[in-house]
Amino acid sequence: MSFISYLINGISLGSVYAIIALGYTMVYGIAKMLNFAHGDVIMVGSFAVFTIVSTLGLSPILGILVAVVICTVLGMAIERVAYKPLRNASSPLAVLITAIGVSYLLQNIALLIFGANTKSFTSVVTISPLKLADGQLMISGETIVTIIAGIVIMIGLTLFVNKSKAGQAMLAVSEDKGAAQLMGINVNGTIALTFAIGSALAAIAGVLLCSAYPSLTPYTGAMPGIKAFVAAVFGGIGSIPGAMIGGILLGIIEILGKAYISSQMADAIVFAVLIIVLLVKPTGILGKNIQEKV
Amino acid sequence: MKKMKMTKTAKNNFVTYFIVLIAYILVQILLKSGHMSSLMEGLLVPLCIYVMLAVSLNLTVGILGELSLGHAGFMCVGAFSGAFFSKCMDGAMPDGIRFFIALLIGAAVAGVFGIVIGIPVLRLKGDYLAIVTLAFGEIIKNLVNVLYIGKDNNGFHFSMKDSISLHLGEEGQVIVNGAQGITGTPHDASFTAGVLLIFISLFIILNLINSRDGRAIMSIRDNRIAAESTGINITKYKLMAFSISAAIAGVAGVLYAHNLSTLTALPKNFGYNMSIMILVFVVLGGIGNIRGSIISAVILTLLPELLRGLSDYRMLIYAIVLIAMMLFNWSPKAIEWKDKLKEKYFSKIPFRKEKEVK
């Protein structure tokens, strides 16, 4: 019975990772850059909800909406100011370092506004825990909401990318920027839209993460950000279904590793699995292998 | 032997050594005349450590052309192996010799780790390679945190659980105590030792770059397939660059360990944040430019300290300066603008066009 409960917790944590990883992977697919500041957008979203719900005492739904709007605007602003000028830079490392700079910037702004003390985040979920099998199996409301939110977002995003015009434009831009432009696609607009969606997802992920693990500091986003990055690579970076699979697998591995092997070494186990997968399949689970031609 | 005329590279390297030497002399003058605050004095050894880390990472990122995000992991390996040796041998041999052997051990262990990790990792490419090096770095940090080693009359005892399960004898002593790390490492590091080590690392790296092997490594960076088809052993040269880079990071780690009385593996000092910070030095100084790495490591380490008067705002300003410098240095528009300015104001002075390193 405890195994099932761990598994469900793992899927729940994995859903959060998957939502964050979707943002990573979409941005990577379209802008070919590792957005190191993505984890900090999660933190900004969490602080927005924290301010509205705990400090101002307004309704959680409003808090989430405002957080999504703030993060969307923030994501687009970051892209416009910090990443767009470097899109054609001679080295891809330039934009990576700028992203690190943005990450430092967001962390330090949050540090100045909210201080370094850990804030205890009040869960936005009010559903009572679900008891199954005569109370032997307890699933918390946060877990249920997280899993449902994860499923809804994954289905929604898949439909959006595959069925809508904007989604098709995204795929086209990620495949070949030049050709997409020749076909009349607004490349700048599509990239901005990608950042907007990725950041909105980060805001939702932040709320879900902080509801399940209710401690909030300016550095809260960093580790989940890195883990989600690992999840995106795990599933094959640039691939949307890959990010979902990678995220959920990573969450399950982490929780099971914590429960059955060693709680101190959970991170090491996650990274070890990643290394093994990449050594067997160097482009991740669903990654495309592009053959280098002379 | 007849004295030969200095080539351009030799001149260039000489300038690099000279800058370090001048900086060393300047600092010594400031120290002797008492013009240096104790805060700055405490920063001297870390400066040497960062310079060595930046220079060694530049070998991987700039010369070999592979993005590594696990450099702090090698530093961690070096720090713990060096400190472990010093702790075991404390009092058994003269301080200078002990420190020297500790440095060699740190370099050797980190170098071996570089080879062991490099064999699987260097088969990957680009961002996959970056994330795997990051993963290895985090694993090393994590493992060190659960490692317990003790010593008693029966020899060494290992455990991955806690210090009690070491089952030490009566005279036993816990050397590596899990998350508490190694305490009481002798304070052997000094600024002079640090600068000497910088000279040695520079000597190794600059000579490597300008040797036949170095050119082979750079040819892999520029075009792997072309290099392979001219008969260059890709694996050998990649491993060579990677393990030398790791070994120098290991030496920096030993220096770090002997500068502090307590050595613990925290996310702050051996986590991916540290690796990223070193990468920032390398990219800001110029990818593949060793002298640039030294200068940017010094400036970026001093910057937060110089801004200390601004207290809470210093890291914010640091972040803004970092973003602004990256945009100014790398954005195609800014480069175009700078070229225009150059043409407008300096067109009469004949500029020596530097060859661009890709």
Descriptive notes:
The complex is a heterodimer of chains A (294) and B (358). Chain A has 294 residues and is mainly alpha-helical. Chain A has 11 helices and 4 strands. Helices cover 68% and strands 5% of the residues of chain B. Chain B has helices spanning 8-32, 38-64, 71-88, 95-121, 126-145, 191-209, 212-222, 224-229, 234-257, 267-270, 272-285, 290-306, 314-330, 332-346; strands spanning 148-152, 155-159, 173-177, 182-183, 262-263. In chain B, α2 runs parallel beside α6. The mean pLDDT of chain B is 84.
Q: Approximately what portion of the residues of chain B adopt beta-strand conformation?
A: 5-15%
Q: What structural class results from the helix and strand content of chain B?
A: mainly alpha
Radius of gyration of chain A: 19 Å
Question: What level of helicity do the residues of chain B show?
Answer: 55-70%
Number of helical regions of chain B:
14
Please trace the helix and strand order of chain A, writing H or E for each element. Answer: HHHHEEEHHHHEHHH
Reading the helices and strands of chain B in chain order gives HHHHHEEEEHHHHEHHHHH
Assembly of the depicted chains: heterodimer
| CATH architecture identity of chain B | Orthogonal Bundle
Global mean pLDDT of chain B: 84
Classification by helices and strands of chain A: mainly alpha
Annotation, overall tally of beta strands of chain B: 5
Major pleated sheet of chain B: 3 strands, antiparallel
Main interface pair? Answer: A-B, 47 and 51 residues
Q: How many discrete domains of chain A?
A: 1
Range of strand content of chain A: under 5%
End-to-end distance of chain B: 37 Å
Largest sheet of chain B, order of strands side by side? 2-1-3
What's the domain count of chain B? 1
Number of helical regions of chain A: 11
Q: What are the defining features of this structure?
A:
heterodimer; A: 294 residues; mainly alpha; two-stranded antiparallel sheet; two-stranded antiparallel ribbon; 4 strands; 71% helix; B: 358 residues; ABC transporter involved in vitamin B12 uptake, BtuC; 3-stranded antiparallel β-sheet; 14 helices; 5 strands; 5% strand
